[in-house]
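explain this.
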Amino acid sequence: MSDLTGKTIAVLGGTGPQGRGLARRFATAGLSVVIGSRGAEKAEQVAAELAQATGGAVTGAANADAAAAGDVVLVVVPWDGHKELLTDLKPALAGKIVVDCVNPLGFDKQGPFALQVEEGSATQQAAAILTDSTVVGAFHNVSAVLLEDPEVETIECDVLVLGDEREATDLVQALADSIPGMRGVYGGRRRNAHQVEAFTANLIAMNRRYKAHAGLRITDI
C-alpha cells in the first residue's frame, strides 16, 4: 500500500458493474477514487452512493475530467467504445499509468467467445494509442457481482498484471493487493495480454454452467 500513498485512482466507465465494483473496493481500502462516465451527472450520483456506502473519498466527473484527476487511471468501458475513448483522452492520459481492464468478447447462441483484435489485445491497442502513457493490463478476470456485493468482505482471486515497465506493474499489483483476499501477480509483458483477456470467456461459460462467480488462483507463488 505504501506505493499508493497520496495517489488518486480514476475509474473510467465507473458507473458500469465492473467499474463501480472496483471503485467500491478501492474506496473501502481507503484510496481516493474518481469515477468517470460519459456524463458527469451520472458519475456524481454513483460516486455519492459509494461514498455513503463505504465512508470513502469518492467523487464523480465526466471521463475527461476523471482522467485528468487520476494518477492511476483504470479503463473499464465496453469494448466497442474502447478505441474512440482512448483516442479522445490521449492528452489527458499523458504521463499517467493507465490500467486497461477491457475484455474484447462477443456473444452468440453458443455463449461467450474472444474477439480478434488487430493490435493483439485491448491492452496492446491501448498502448498503441496512448504512446505518452504507461499501459498495464489487469483486473480482467474478476467477478463484477462479487465486487459489487457489500456482503462479500474478501474477493478470493488472483489478478494477472501485464506490462513492460516493472515500476508500473509493481504499483498495479499493490492496487490489487489493497482489496482483501485479492493478490496481484505479474503475468508477463503486454504482448501476453490476449490470452488473459480471452480467458474471461471461459470464466463466463464456467459461471453459467456452475452458477458461480469463479476467478483465478495461481499456485506455487
